[in-house]
Amino acid sequence: MIRFNSDYLEGAHPRILKRLSETNFEQTPGYGEDKYCESARNVIKDLCKAPNAYVQFIVGGTQTNMILLAAALRPHQGAVAAETGHIAVHESGAIEGTGHKVLTLPHKDGKISAGAVSELCRVHFADESFEHMVQPKVVYLSQPTEYGTLYTREELIAMRGVCDRWNLLLYVDGARLGYALEAPGNDVDLPFLAEVCDAFYIGGTKQGALFGEALVMMNDALKADFRYILKQKGAMLAKGRLLGLQFEELLKDGLYNETSRHAIRLAMKLKQALTDLGYPFYIDSPTNQQFPVMPDSAIEKLSRKYAFANFGRVDATHTCVRFCTSWWTPEENVDALIADLKKL
Amino acid sequence: MIRFNSDYLEGAHPRILKRLSETNFEQTPGYGEDKYCESARNVIKDLCKAPNAYVQFIVGGTQTNMILLAAALRPHQGAVAAETGHIAVHESGAIEGTGHKVLTLPHKDGKISAGAVSELCRVHFADESFEHMVQPKVVYLSQPTEYGTLYTREELIAMRGVCDRWNLLLYVDGARLGYALEAPGNDVDLPFLAEVCDAFYIGGTKQGALFGEALVMMNDALKADFRYILKQKGAMLAKGRLLGLQFEELLKDGLYNETSRHAIRLAMKLKQALTDLGYPFYIDSPTNQQFPVMPDSAIEKLSRKYAFANFGRVDATHTCVRFCTSWWTPEENVDALIADLKKL
Amino acid sequence: MIRFNSDYLEGAHPRILKRLSETNFEQTPGYGEDKYCESARNVIKDLCKAPNAYVQFIVGGTQTNMILLAAALRPHQGAVAAETGHIAVHESGAIEGTGHKVLTLPHKDGKISAGAVSELCRVHFADESFEHMVQPKVVYLSQPTEYGTLYTREELIAMRGVCDRWNLLLYVDGARLGYALEAPGNDVDLPFLAEVCDAFYIGGTKQGALFGEALVMMNDALKADFRYILKQKGAMLAKGRLLGLQFEELLKDGLYNETSRHAIRLAMKLKQALTDLGYPFYIDSPTNQQFPVMPDSAIEKLSRKYAFANFGRVDATHTCVRFCTSWWTPEENVDALIADLKKL
Amino acid sequence: MIRFNSDYLEGAHPRILKRLSETNFEQTPGYGEDKYCESARNVIKDLCKAPNAYVQFIVGGTQTNMILLAAALRPHQGAVAAETGHIAVHESGAIEGTGHKVLTLPHKDGKISAGAVSELCRVHFADESFEHMVQPKVVYLSQPTEYGTLYTREELIAMRGVCDRWNLLLYVDGARLGYALEAPGNDVDLPFLAEVCDAFYIGGTKQGALFGEALVMMNDALKADFRYILKQKGAMLAKGRLLGLQFEELLKDGLYNETSRHAIRLAMKLKQALTDLGYPFYIDSPTNQQFPVMPDSAIEKLSRKYAFANFGRVDATHTCVRFCTSWWTPEENVDALIADLKKL
């Protein structure tokens, strides 16, 4: 079975395992106060051109979202997200578990617009019973989105303006941020994210780390006492250096970008082949997730040899499926898939 | 600097790193549903002689305590713990963060007695305003305790009786369980824990894993829907196999016991040396944490070369300190320390 | 200004004030353990023909919803409600504040269907990642709904079946229950609610009490330890007798039904007049809330003399408004309104 | 049975019932935005000489504590209280229910000292693992305490200094505040409380209202968005005027002070009689709660005719009991009790 069903199927990039082995018997302080975390924090601040950034490493993405929002919100406040947003759907109510509602907006290809967020706020504060409803306080975006699409620089500038207008914080979930950075047409880079966001995270788990996300906080209000909340939510890793060391390695010498480019190149190769074969796409994604619509009969045949995700029925005989490439996908796997697609 | 200040200073046992490398490019399902987790679960059920046990692997100890208690308690219920218990002191209010009070009892060498728990329950239910107070529902013990001491089989049987009498659940935090299992005089083994507890965990982080704790649930009420709560609290590791693989390796061929015995042997060697040198002990610990009382002048000199923890001032010129050995402590480190102690 | 903008504009029915005065200097135990609460509980059990019902009186509706759901749900579970449901919109995130998501379904005239609830459950449990999403556990309905409409006996029987099929609890918010009971065409009475629901509440605040709702629990799992949770959420009224005494009086000699009939008769009188004058209705409500669509110019004129609620813009020149009658609305107020409507 | 077992045994002061009746059919806006609340807020600001105070009325005391602390604390912060404090013992974990730990200090006659609070903070921030422990953020006092004792002006000034030193908020629970204000030797008045506290509440339930507490917030950070949180916790009373009207009446013409003086005079009369009869006191209380130590045989005889609370066993044959007088206690009840005490 050749798997395209997610981008976290394998372990880690070999350079990470090598570094883990080399440093295994060094004795370091725990809880993220070691030299590897320190070094990785500096690398990130450099890449973001943000010397005032405050960086914390966290094991997983749901954990990162939950903790950042718990740190950001007072009890009556909520996060605005696309109805398809990860926090709205696939985190088992983690945000609600910390006491906060996720206020959803309709999406277009996984994205929400600055205008829609502004209108939600306008309606909220215009309602004479506004205190009877959850106050919008954070805008949650994902880059790329759950549909593989991207916010443009222009769109993020507009969203920042709306946030300033309504006193909201802007937070970007970058679980697959590398695949956004290297996508064709992308114009959003790390320094821009650091400028436009109150916080965002650079994903590791889906980008070649064993695990780990690097949360970058720009807004001072979020930084205050953050590590207490990290500990309270069970997220302060005892051997914190494992996180620092992985990010240090991933972000050194452009490895993060290089592996992301690899995934994007293979995704585009697959996209082109599918297009050439006449398959329509449910979403036009420039990143490592591709969403073709295929006849059920073709899906059935492919499934014998390849694993990929069912993304939803389109009509009586067609289904949208998702193929993921990753930092590690061997090119021959994509070539085999393309060959088999041609034979269908 | 030679460090004795904790038992999670290094990375992992080399056999774990080796296995991570060997399996790195296998593609597995995520979230703990892979073959390594399955295999490790079976190993644990075998070691516990508990085919009905339900095992989940979790990255850290605070996380494990928080999730187990969140799963076990209704909103008005709390956990009874020693005032020195980890959940009562060193988890930044993680339990309260999930809505539950920790009801503390005075400790003796880190332990609470079945009698004290029973009396707390009797007083609670005898009070005509009992509904105005938090209902005791879980007894939280640690084995070994935060003071390195052990509950005996006899004591745990008594505690189980009290739990049955008052309809409580019994939960044992085994962050350092290996060091308890191999301690001189210990009479509590895994099958007994599985028999006497509703849940307990087998620690990995302090026992030679990179990270990870194996939560063993025996009570069916705790098992139900547990993975939802795991996910909700941000604790469902994407590459769950990392946890399974580590526990599989640690528990295979007696590695867990062997490395624990190593730590205990060195701790006893150090204890004997300190005793011979006439140092009193704050607590008589049979495990890998040793708590001698030393003159401040001696501490000051040792500190130049060795790291160890300050455990509290005893009088104007003496302090209790803590030395930890671990699964990896080189014997020459202990020998060097003993030599330097003799020179003081 | 004559007010039709809500049904809680005045104090209480005079019989309630009279009883409060008569009993003012009696000394009673606190916290709902007095004879008035006891008596009111018995009256409710009789009216519901439910000797096993467990009745608790609570000051307000949001409080009642929040506490019942906190008592009913484990951390990963949520309540299914219409997107217009009170808990989904107008409780400032009270349910999320206790850690639980409200899972919303599209509504039709404020109602959700048994089929839609069943499909939501089917999709949830069919998803291979179901543990990554909030588990549906309680169905929340309101009778009448926020749009003044009613569930029929048939519809509730179907919903009960779906609840049994998917192991859900059925909870009915009866903030305006009296107006449902006396509505033309209604076929749902108290004994039927007691039979079909796991819990429901009989509203007092909007039905002639100073404050207070009577929560009726039928399911034993909800009854257990309920008063602890009541206290924990700050809802155990010290002078609990105030609640018991009000419900005793309201439910004695049919006062609750009589005052509800009064409100319904006036609402129907107003509805008929509006219909005769050719105004369309946004919703066809058989209860005390009426939702005509009126030209903005007419609304502007009426607003000088009458208070009523804006329910939403319909087109460029028309708006839906809401008129409420209540247990106390003087008939001359309705007559004056009708006369002025005719003059428009 | 003549009852001295609490100060909330009866309904309300007759002037309150009279006002409720007089205003019953006025139509007012809901949720505390009516003229009675507005007026009562102004009365309180005048009495406190605090034009910038922000006043909200809340039904009960546990509710008030829970909401104020939820508004004041970030997730990792807790409230410091005496181990006998109401929030630490008798609120069923309401504070923990909102996610926050109550950090307890040993008490002396129900009080904690500024020195002890300061030392707790010093130890917290001096600990290198401070982020692993709950951060102290609010000091919770009660005036009078649960033991009937009072903080002096001097003591509160010292506590304020400690709060400023460690960046804490000072909050005073005044459930029985009137009995403190009128106690012999008291030197703490409302303007001083408004000056020294970040927030405090003026109790109504135990002081002659049917229910209700007036929360006075001085610190702007607490005022922001407070009503959202009020609503979220189910505490925004629909007919909010009931609260405003009661406080307006209680605080008008000195009724609050007058009724409190009455309770104090009777308490002192009883105290003198008990002293003359040679009974020792467990606590020397200058307020409406008196705590004599009596032989069990005497208690047994008195219990046939009088209700009073058992406050704890003192030795094999003696128990501390609590007698409460209140705003309404008839003097003949106290005289009867004294006469019967003399006969023992």
Task: Give a description of the structure.
The structure is a homotetramer of 344-residue chains. The first copy, chain A, contains 15 helices and 13 strands. Chain A has 344 residues and is α/β, with parallel strands linked by helices. The first copy, chain A, has a seven-stranded mixed β-sheet with strand order 2-8-7-6-5-3-4, sandwiched between helices. In chain A, helix 2 (35-47) packs parallel to helix 12 (241-251) and helix 6 (114-126) packs parallel to helix 7. The longest helix of chain A has 22 residues, at 255-276. At the C-D interface, helix 1, helix 3 and helix 11 of C face helix 1, helix 3 and helix 11 of D.
Q: Notable features of this structure?
A:
homotetramer, 344 residues, alpha/beta, 7-stranded mixed beta sheet, 4-stranded antiparallel beta sheet
Structural class of chain A: alpha/beta
Helix and strand succession of chain A? EHHEHEHHEHEHEHHEEHHHHEEHEEEH
Mean pLDDT figure of chain A = 97
Rounded to the nearest angstrom, the distance between the terminal CA atoms of chain A is 18 Å
- So what's the oligomer here? homotetramer
Greatest contact between two chains: C-D, 50 and 50 residues
What does the largest sheet of chain A look like?
7 strands, mixed
Q: Detail the poorly predicted runs of chain A.
A: none
User: What spatial form of chain A do the alpha-carbon principal axes imply?
Assistant: globular
Fraction in helix of chain A = 40-55%
Strand tally of chain A is 13
**Fraction of residues in β-strands of chain A:** 15-25%
Provide a count of the helices of chain A: 15
Radius of gyration from the alpha-carbon trace of chain A, in angstroms: 21 Å
Can you list the strand order of the major beta sheet of chain A?
Answer: 2-8-7-6-5-3-4
